[in-house]
């Protein structure tokens, strides 16, 4: 199973189908693909038709990133509606986690990132709160002043 599925090696001679432009075999494949090849030979069970082939970039997020983010929330964390989730990094994995949390109806979904566009998308896809990492020093100062004020009032 491991050589065939993880390394994409042929069972007959332990070679791979991918080659570099100079003809050398590429052996650093993972799950039958590699960043260095233009084409890949895969099983027919690994191919999914794309109804909008002019926009293939949209499909790339549905692979590893979506399965990792949503799968972590749905299968590993298994939060309930009373739980909150904080997502550090609103890239493909983080956005998928946010969408899964929204699907589950979590009370609070907090997205943290340094790119404002990602935070905007996070809000559109289910985040109830967003924090730009550039604002964290201000949050810390605010929390500190609240605690100091609270101590002074006691």
UniProtKB/TrEMBL annotation:
Keywords: Membrane, Metal-binding, NAD, Transmembrane, Transmembrane helix, Zinc. InterPro entries: ADH-like_C, NAD(P)-bd_dom_sf. GO terms for molecular function: S-(hydroxymethyl)glutathione dehydrogenase [NAD(P)+] activity; zinc ion binding. Gene3D superfamilies: Medium-chain alcohol dehydrogenases, catalytic domain, NAD(P)-binding Rossmann-like Domain. The chain crosses the membrane at residues 85-104. It comes from the Eukaryota. Pfam families: ADH_zinc_N. One of its GO terms (biological process) is formaldehyde catabolic process. Residues 93-144 form the Alcohol dehydrogenase-like C-terminal domain. GO terms for cellular component: cytosol. PANTHER family: ALCOHOL DEHYDROGENASE, ALCOHOL DEHYDROGENASE CLASS-3. This is Alcohol dehydrogenase-like C-terminal domain-containing protein. It comes from Clonostachys chloroleuca.
């Amino acid at each position: 199973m491991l050589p065939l599925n993880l390394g994409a090696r042929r069972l007959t001679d332990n070679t791979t189908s991918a080659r570099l432009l100079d003809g050398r075999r590429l052996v650093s494949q993972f799950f039958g693909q590699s960043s260095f090849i233009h084409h890949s030979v895969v099983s027919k069970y690994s191919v999914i038709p794309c109804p909008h082939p002019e926009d293939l970039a949209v499909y790339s997020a549905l692979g590893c990133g979506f399965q990792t983010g949503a799968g972590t929330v749905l299968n590993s964390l298994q939060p309930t509606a009373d739980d909150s989730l904080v997502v550090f990094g609103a890239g493909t994995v983080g956005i998928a986690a946010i969408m899964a949390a929204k699907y589950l109806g979590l009370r609070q979904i907090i997205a943290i990132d340094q790119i404002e566009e990602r935070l905007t998308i996070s809000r559109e896809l289910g985040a109830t709160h967003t924090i730009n990492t550039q604002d964290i020093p201000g949050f810390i100062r605010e929390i500190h002043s609240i605690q100091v004020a609270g101590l002074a009032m006691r």
